[in-house]
């Protein structure tokens, strides 16, 4: 049940939570991107129409400037009419071009829509008279032919600088509206004057949001106001669904990998627990039978010693020595069983690794000389203290060096190095023996596994058991025909009193 809830928690943490966060982020990003796209499209539409209107107004100002230079008040009405008609004919965007006297009465024009009309009360005509400058009307007008126009006027001055006449042009706003509809048919926009009053607007049947984008005209204090299209929820939905699928795939892949590594770790843990259970079983067996085995062995050994004193024949003595060796061998196996079963039976104490290795140095050196092996020991200047048991630590070092000697039957070299770094110390034992195969090195810490004819398969298991009881670790690396290296790491104590 615990594993079930653990898997659910991991699934929520690795799959559901990141997917939810990713989808929310994708939703925000998609909505933001969609909004900016709509905003850019709206701004592009507004810019197109803004430039079109600015160009039209600028060209109108230029045309009025040219006409004002060309017109002379002493010209006949027919000549003035022909001139205005010629100018009007060149551009269909105008509803008419007219010449007014200084009081605002029509003198002549390119058509008869305003014949004899009095425009003196028109707001933009009054503004021209007042400011003596080019003025454009703030309102849309409707001519008798149904055309919608916006008036633009420019004063014509006499030699003494007084207004002699007024030249006006009617900009066809309906013509411009039609052009705008053709250019951007699915657009809803409005043209506003300086007082933000509506001059004209274009409404589309397409649905639009309440958001608007305003772009000012460069030539006038007017602005174009364009509505932004409605939010494209389908596009956002598709992007979010795509992101959801992507996040689900990625997170499930990660979840599967995590599950794989967890199962692998669980298998390794179970394997380790099985090995520990084996050791505990062996230990329990050893604890209950070791003394029972040793008691008869002691009696047998005593009787063999008495018989060896009675029967002094060389053949008999040989047999007695073999019996004694086997009894000693049984005792060693029993001792190893006891360590497996209860490695911390002895009381731990502060011990100096440097001193322990120095104590063992004569034994190891003499063994090396006997086996024609070059021996080297590298120790630090300062003592290195750890918590453990002297005898068991010596047993570990002697056991490993014994294995090293047995692997170098034809000679070689053995090196022992002791060093300390930060909170740990390291014992490194290196030999140049026959090495261990990759298949064998995976099994060397399994109980009863041995490659020796007379081995018990408990030596290295006992060593690891002892080192782990000291809070340390032991690692073995080897390559066939090149040698073996054993690394032992133990927690370091700064001073003998630092227990």
Automatic annotation (TrEMBL):
Name of this protein: histidine kinase
Transmembrane segments: 7-28
Keyword terms: ATP-binding, Kinase, Membrane, Nucleotide-binding, Phosphoprotein, Transferase, Transmembrane, Transmembrane helix, Two-component regulatory system
InterPro entries in the cross-refs: HATPase_C_sf, HATPase_dom, His_kinase_dom, HisK_dim/P_dom, HisK_dim/P_sf, Sig_transdc_His_kin-like_C
GO molecular function: kinase activity
Residues annotated as domain Histidine kinase: 288-494
Entry's EC annotation: 2.7.13.3
Reaction(s) catalysed (UniProt annotation): ATP + protein L-histidine = ADP + protein N-phospho-L-histidine
Pfam families: HATPase_c, HisKA
SUPFAM superfamilies attached to this UniProt entry: ATPase domain of HSP90 chaperone/DNA topoisomerase II/histidine kinase, Homodimeric domain of signal transducing histidine kinase
């Amino acid at each position: 049940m615990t594993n079930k809830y653990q898997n659910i928690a991991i699934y929520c943490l690795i799959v559901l939570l990141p997917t939810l966060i990713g989808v929310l982020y994708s939703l925000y990003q998609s909505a933001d991107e969609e909004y900016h796209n709509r905003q850019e499209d709206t701004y592009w539409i507004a810019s197109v129409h803004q430039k079109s209107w600015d160009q039209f107004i600028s060209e109108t100002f230029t045309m009025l400037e040219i006409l004002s230079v060309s017109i002379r008040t002493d010209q006949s009405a027919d000549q003035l009419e022909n001139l205005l008609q010629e100018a009007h004919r060149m551009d269909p965007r105008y509803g008419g071009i007219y010449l007014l006297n200084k009081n605002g009465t029509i003198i002549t024009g390119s058509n008869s829509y305003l014949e004899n009309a009095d425009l003196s009360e028109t707001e933009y005509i009054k503004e021209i008279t007042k400011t003596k400058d080019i003025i454009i009307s703030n309102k849309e007008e409707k001519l008798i032919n149904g055309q919608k126009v916006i008036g633009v006027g420019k004063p014509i001055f006499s030699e003494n600088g007084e207004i002699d006449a007024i030249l006006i042009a009617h900009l066809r706003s309906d013509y411009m509206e039609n052009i705008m509809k053709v250019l951007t048919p699915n657009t809803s926009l409005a043209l506003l004057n300086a007082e933000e009053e509506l001059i004209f607007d274009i409404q589309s049947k397409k649905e639009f949001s309440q958001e608007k984008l305003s772009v000012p005209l460069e030539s006038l204090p007017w602005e174009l106001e364009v509505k932004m299209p409605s939010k494209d929820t389908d596009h956002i939905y598709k992007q979010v669904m795509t992101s959801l699928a992507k996040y689900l795939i990625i997170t499930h892949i990660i979840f599967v990998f995590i599950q794989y590594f967890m199962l692998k770790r669980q298998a390794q843990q179970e394997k380790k627990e099985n090995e520990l259970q084996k050791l505990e079983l062996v230990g329990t067996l050893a604890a209950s039978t070791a003394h029972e085995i040793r008691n008869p062995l002691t009696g047998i050994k005593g009787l063999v010693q008495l018989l060896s004193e009675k029967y002094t024949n060389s053949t008999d003595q040989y047999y007695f020595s073999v019996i004694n060796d086997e009894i000693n061998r049984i005792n060693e196996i029993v001792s190893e069983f006891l360590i497996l079963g209860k490695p911390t039976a002895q009381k731990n104490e502060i011990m100096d690794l440097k001193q322990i290795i120095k104590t063992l140095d004569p034994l190891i050196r003499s063994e090396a000389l006997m086996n024609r092996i070059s021996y080297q020991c590298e120790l630090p200047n300062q003592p290195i203290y750890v918590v453990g048991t002297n005898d068991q630590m010596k047993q570990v070092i002697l056991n490993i060096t014994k294995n090293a000697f047995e692997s170098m039957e034809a000679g070689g070299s053995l090196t022992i190095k002791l060093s300390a770094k930060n909170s740990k110390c390291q014992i490194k034992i290196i030999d140049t023996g026959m090495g261990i195969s990759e298949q064998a090195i995976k099994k060397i810490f399994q109980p009863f596994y041995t490659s020796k004819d007379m081995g018990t398969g408990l030596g290295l298991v006992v060593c690891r058991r002892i080192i782990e009881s000291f809070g340390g670790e032991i690692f073995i690396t080897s390559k066939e025909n090149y040698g073996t290296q054993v690394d032992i790491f133990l927690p370091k104590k700064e001073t003998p009193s630092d227990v």
